[in-house]
Recover the amino acids of this structure.
């Protein structure tokens, strides 16, 4: 951890029914953290809760069904979980979609749904989280963006990369505003980590398995930096390259 980081004992994770969210829950549970888990599929959350409590009976796990596109519900559910667990001190904005189609090809629904969930849903979660943290003058907001946010991507990934760039911008703006505050803001940019959202991605040596990839995410979150690219190798060098290489070359990385 950095000198300003602290142990956060009560963590809310959205999009926790599968993929990165579920594995983050498992890894934070192994550290003895109390968890608030949200997702649309409550049956999956109940199964995960039972799994976590069986493995770690000393922790508390609260679950709620939540569609992050229901913005009023986001605020209500975050407040309920904050009350139930006696105060959330880290909120991980993780829920997201990976749908997409080339823009202008007659399939706008997938792009609009991805933009709605990934940007407006993340903004609603940031609003609800920051309202709690500002009221108590402390907390850690984590925004899960993507390496796709670093550079606009072509074809079916254009809307997705744009939505994740918006998430990164939220994190950058809040981190700048709160740089002298006890409230920490971290933007996580994962590279390829095997989850249901990218199961159709062609086989690539850049793909990390779920457990190892999420381990790098959790380690970065615990340090509480403003921005973290994970896994560090090979994605930190790729992050630098994406910022300076011409467009004709960047498509080789993503």
């Amino acid at each position: 951890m950095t000198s300003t980081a602290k142990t956060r004992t009560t963590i809310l994770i959205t999009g926790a029914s599968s993929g990165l969210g579920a594995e983050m829950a498992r890894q934070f549970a192994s550290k003895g953290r109390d968890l608030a888990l949200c997702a649309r599929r409550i049956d999956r959350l109940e199964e995960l809760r039972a799994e976590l409590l069986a493995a770690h009976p000393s922790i508390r796990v609260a679950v709620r069904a939540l569609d992050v596109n229901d913005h009023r519900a986001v605020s209500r559910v975050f407040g309920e979980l904050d009350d139930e667990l006696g105060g959330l001190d880290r909120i991980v904005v993780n829920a997201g979609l990976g749908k997409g189609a080339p823009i202008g090809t007659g399939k706008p629904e997938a792009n609009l749904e991805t933009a709605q969930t990934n940007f407006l849903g993340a903004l609603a979660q940031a609003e609800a989280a920051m309202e709690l943290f500002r009221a108590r003058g402390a907390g850690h907001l984590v925004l899960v963006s993507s390496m796709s946010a670093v550079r606009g991507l072509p074809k079916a990934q254009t809307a997705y990369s744009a939505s994740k760039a918006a998430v990164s911008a939220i994190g950058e703006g809040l981190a700048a505003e709160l740089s002298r505050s006890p409230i920490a803001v971290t933007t996580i940019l994962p590279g390829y980590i095997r989850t249901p959202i990218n199961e159709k991605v062609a086989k690539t040596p850049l793909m990390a398995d779920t457990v190892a990839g999420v381990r790098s995410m959790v380690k970065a979150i615990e340090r509480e930096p403003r921005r973290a690219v994970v896994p560090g190798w090979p994605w930190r060098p790729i992050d630098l390259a994406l910022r300076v290489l011409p467009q004709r070359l960047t498509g080789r990385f993503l």
